[in-house]
């Protein structure tokens, strides 16, 4: 199976968006980028991976968190925090890596505002993976090894962190369907069904692009 499309996947915690992206990339035979983006960013920036890891898709501190959950964006005036500077550095490095990966050809990028970073490219399908809470709790406990106690609170906190990071650097709302081309529920379609849905959607858009280019 071949493709001329780049796929970006933002995902609710526990929705198995990572697995969906990994299987999608494997089926298409294209590169897959998720946490390894942090390794590449750290190497490019000449810092320890452990340093960047603490800022990956997370708000930088409680003060910043309270702000980014509102209407502030990275284009705003919050520039004094050393934590924020490190977070900005990570974002810039990750954005470079994502753009370079897209320039090389079709790939799958999970998280890290990929949908926004590549927003001007016509060959990108922007996907958001969601699932109901029962599915997410089961996946978090049985597949990710998280403790069952207060699991729903833990999932909600992870979502808030991802949302605050995305909202801050994009000026958009992480869970807003208008930020994406396709929203798919793994609790409804299953992981394989979600992959098939994304593939079918991507193929349809490729056909439309081919028709327009004639």
From TrEMBL:
Pfam families: Cytidylate_kin2. This is Cytidylate kinase-like family protein. It comes from Butyricicoccus intestinisimiae. The lineage of its organism: Bacteria, Bacillati, Bacillota, Clostridia, Eubacteriales.
């Amino acid at each position: 199976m071949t493709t001329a499309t780049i796929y970006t996947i933002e995902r609710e915690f526990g929705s198995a968006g990572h697995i969906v992206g990994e299987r999608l990339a494997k089926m298409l035979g294209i590169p897959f980028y998720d946490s390894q983006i942090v390794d590449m960013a750290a190497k490019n920036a000449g810092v320890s991976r452990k340093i960047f890891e603490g800022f990956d898709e997370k708000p930088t501190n409680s003060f910043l968190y309270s702000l980014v959950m509102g209407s502030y964006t990275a284009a705003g005036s919050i520039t004094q925090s050393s934590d924020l500077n490190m977070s900005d550095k990570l974002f810039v490095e990750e954005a470079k890596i994502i753009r370079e990966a897209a320039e090389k050809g079709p790939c799958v990028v999970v998280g890290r505002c990929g949908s926004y970073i590549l927003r001007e490219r016509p060959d990108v399908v922007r996907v958001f993976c969601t699932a109901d809470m029962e599915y997410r709790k089961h996946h978090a406990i049985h597949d990710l090894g998280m403790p069952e106690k207060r699991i729903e609170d833990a999932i909600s906190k992870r979502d808030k962190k991802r949302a605050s990071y995305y909202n801050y650097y994009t000026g958009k709302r992480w869970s807003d369907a208008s930020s994406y081309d396709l929203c798919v529920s793994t609790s409804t379609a299953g992981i394989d069904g979600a992959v098939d849905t994304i593939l079918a959607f991507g193929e349809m858009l490729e056909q439309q692009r081919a028709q327009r280019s004639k």
